[in-house]
Amino acid sequence: MNGRWYHALLIALLLGQLLLLAADERARSSRLERGLLWVLGPFAHGVGAVGNQVGELVAALRSNRALRADNAVLRQQLEEARRELMRLADAEEELRRLSRILDYTREHPAGDFFVADVVYLDQASGLRTLVLFSGNAELRRNQVVRTPQGLVGRIILTAGHYAKVQLITDRASAVSAMIERTRRKGIVRGAGTGGLELHFMPEQADVRPGDRVVTAGIDGIYERGIPIGEVVTVGPVSGLFRRIVVRPAIDFSLLEQVYVLAGGPLPPAMAEGEADAPP
User: Fold this and answer.
1) What is the DSSP letter of 125?
2) DSSP character for 223?
3) In the chain, beta strands by DSSP E
4) What residues contact 122, with CB distance under 8 A and at least 6 apart?
5) What is the spatial distance between Cα 28 and Cα 192, in angstroms, rounded to a whole number?
6) pLDDT tens digits along 132-165
7) Taking the alpha carbons of 10, 11, 14, 19 in that order, is the dihedral positive or negative?
8) Which of 101, 146, 171, 173 could bridge across to 192 with cysteines, CB 3.0–4.6 Å?
9) Among candidates 219, 206, 135, 214, which has minimal Cα distance to 174?
10) Which of 28-37, 123-132, 177-186, 253-262 has the highest mean pLDDT?
């Protein structure tokens, strides 16, 4: 139905209604009146129905616009709630970190360590290393790096307030260690795949899965008692010693901050020997 025809129909309907109103009571039963009612009645009914449908459509469109506006507001509120939840999670993690630092500080005298930020971590190559930034604190070679959970490694190179740390999971790393339960000593070496192996444990050594492995403190670098990891498997004897797999005490991929033990410089004789040793 085009617009002109629709307008003509409305005009005809209005004219018919005017004729009905103009007719006096005596002529209302005339043939003209009956004819007009017969012709215009269905059109009036149709126009009324169309008007109702148009009104319903307009109301539906308005309701749809209102629903879309409400939906946009709800989405914005949901996004703000998500951002706030992330901020709260970050704040909670920061509180946990500060709590761990406080707990560690209670166990170690002030000045024995300082906090450094991890700025780079290499776990993909065979050289398992990380780079840390110490702020204004002094960095030296062979300073021990750890977290409250366990041993990370040692500094092997310094450049100003940056330092390169050899992780204990590096294949070239070697740490004097012992089984905490039995005090049996050995050497923990990096497996190069993120794991550790405990070497030089003879067949008669009492080693069990679940045993805690800590530093032995006899290599001149690592102090005694720092957690290294936990025995996972005790393999058969190969040659004279067992093959023992150790799971590290910390997840290196989660490192953001570490503790650098201040320590003191090595005696001159040891420092000279250390200078000739490979990193």
Assistant:
1) S
2) P
3) 113-122, 129-133, 144-146, 151-159, 162-167, 174-179, 185-190, 196-199, 212-215, 227-238, 241-248, 257-261
4) 128, 129, 130
5) 108
6) 998 888 899 999 999 989 999 999 999 989 999 9
7) negative
8) 171
9) 219
10) 177-186
Percentages (nearest 5) of helix, strand, coil residues in the chain: 40, 30, 30
The residue written with tokens 């070679």 in the block is: 141
Residue 2 neighbours by CB distance under 10 Å: 6
Residue 120, pLDDT above cutoff 80: yes
SS3 of 250, please?
coil
Question: What number of residues does the chain have?
Answer: 279
Nearest Cα to 172, choosing from 127, 214, 120? 127
Q: State the Rg of the chain over Cα.
A: 42
d(C-alpha 94, C-alpha 24), whole Å: 92
C-beta separation of 277 from 260 below 8 A: no
Q: Which two tokens stand for residue 151?
A: 């041993």
How many angstroms separate the CA atoms of 197 and 245, rounded? Answer: 5
State the Cα–Cα distance between residues 175 and 181, nearest whole angstrom: 18
SS3 171: coil
CA–CA dist 201, 186 (Å, integer): 6
Residue ranges of E strands in 180-220: 185-190, 196-199, 212-215
- The CA distance from 270 to 263, in Å, is 15
| Residue 274 pLDDT level (bands cut at 50, 70, 90) | very low
